[in-house]
Amino acid sequence: MHLNSAVAAALLATGAQAHGFHGNPHGFAGQNHIPGGHIPGGPGPAGSSPSSASVSYTVPEKLPTFTPTTVKAEFLEQFDEAWDSRWKASHAKKDTAGSEEEWAYVGEWAVEEPYVYNGQVGDSYLVAKNAAAHHAISAKFPKKIDPKDKTLVVQYEVKLQKGLECGGAYMKLLRDTKALHQEEFSNASPYVIMFGPDKCGHTNKVHFIFNHKNPKTGKYEEKHLSAPPQASIDKISHLYTLIVQPNNTFTIQKDGETVREGSLLEQFSPAVNPEKEIDDPKDTKPEDWVDEARIPDPEAKKPEDWDEDAPFEIVDEEATIPEDWLEDEPTTVADPEAQKPEDWDDGEDGDWVAPVVPNPKCADVSGCGTWTKPLKSNPDYKGPWSAPYIDNPAYKGVWAPRKIANPEYFEDLTPANFEPIGAIGFELWTMQADVSFDNIYIGHSIDDAKKLADETFFVKFPVEKALEQAEKPKESEKPKSPSDLKFLDDPVTYVKEKLDLFLTIAANNPIEAIKFVPEVPTAVVGLLVTIVALIGTLTSGGSAPAPVKKAATDAKEKAKDAKDKAAEAVATGAENVKGEANKRATRSSS
Ligand SMILES: *[C@@H]1O[C@H](CO)[C@@H](O)[C@H](O)[C@H]1NC(C)=O
């Protein structure tokens, strides 16, 4: 790989912030009640909350076995053998209107049991199989789901078998249209709700976006939940639940705990309902509007005794010559140690004169030569006079345009009456393969969704947690995620992994990649640039990594010189990536 040191420098700088990468590592964060009283292998009495990371789980002797649920719902999916009669992958081209490049949904899907921390024997997930690929798959509902005047419950499990550095794991509930061609499902397919994890670099969200139809124009607009909660990006299963009530309140739960709640009318951006009144665009500030609150007092006059010409400093007449001052000694003398060079030719070179040096006799006294009285600050100094400021009697206040009724105004008091939903789809780009989904519930019963979770998620969660904990020591020996790497442990791997991550993110979402460039002390960047340059040499020359350590020390000295260059290089790297932004399509139209 060719290392562009500018990009690499920008990227390496992120090492300083590597901790920012992960979401909440604890599946169970708060003290809330966990549904599903009995947790096999779990600690404490039935129903108690395994609320902190210090809770330890025991791997049961025999793993629980999957049994299909008896819970019924408008749509319920456990990925049994008949799954492919319902789900169809799309190989459409991604809609990249206005872009030169084309994306196709080449990512493959499989239904299989997890290979990481498998908590239930015989439990299959839907798995997006390919790294750095666009995936799309959808399933039509047997009957359209109409959320009008009903509670809507959307619930599913996400298991990130390879973690997630950059990629989506959200679902889309697709608008019920007359002809929903599953093989053409793409980012352009209209959706009603988008819900679930999305992670890239420092961004980590559980999205909740809904499309709202403007009753005046008939146009749809996406409403995004502001300050969305964070997704868990470890490798065990996590349960995401969205509940929307007919009174427009919503609740988002992760692993059965509420992580966000509010109202569709309040927590979304842009707001469902526009402002009643807006600034009148025709109103302009009058020419004679006075918006200076304070002015120089026009009545004020310079006082008679104000001498603008009095100097800032005057001679200190009281000063006396220091006792040790040597008035008769010159300040410089001919260097007594200098000698006429042997090859000096008075005829050609002129008369030789010894060079002049400071008089050594003056070194330890106050001074030599003529003494003059020093200056001191002038107590009569006033400087130029200016009038004091007073409140402006003509001040009219800050000007604002007058308000008029908003011609676009409407009021929808029931945004929770979403349009009918005809299908569910996953339309994702992911850098990590094996993003997996299970136990999807879409319906109207909070209790049924809970019952399903009790039979499935809350059975395997403690097992997966135990399997994860049993493996923990091994993992800490050798970090697998680039964000876990520490620079000094292994500089070569660190640089390579970080660069790979940066380039992959940049290819998918350049804006996000730019956010990877934090403001770190430039000296650090300077150090890293030097090392990147060196590693560039190493990887092409194929020599041993031993000199790297020495270089790291040497580079500290060079860092100062390198820092200006580094700052320049970072700026250029970001510019390059920004340029890419215009060429490349991003991963979701949302
Ligand atoms: C909305 O409805 C739910 C379910 O009936 C209820 O629990 C909640 O208190 C209501 N919220 C408001 C603000 O009316």
Describe the structure.
- This protein has 590 residues and is α+β, with helices and mostly antiparallel strands.
- Among the domains are: 104 residues, no CATH class; 304 residues, Jelly Rolls (Sandwich).
- It is built from eight helices and 25 strands.
- Strands 2, 5, 7, 8, 9, 10, 11, 15 and 24 form a nine-stranded antiparallel beta sheet that branches. Strands 1, 3, 4, 6, 12, 13, 14 and 25 form an eight-stranded antiparallel beta sheet that branches. A two-stranded antiparallel sheet has the order 16-23.
- Helix 1 packs across helix 7 and helix 5 packs parallel to helix 8.
- The protein is elongated and about 115 Å long.
- The two termini are 33 Å apart.
- The N terminus and C terminus are likely disordered.
- Bound molecules: 2-acetamido-2-deoxy-beta-D-glucopyranose.
- The site of 2-acetamido-2-deoxy-beta-D-glucopyranose has 3 residues, from loops.
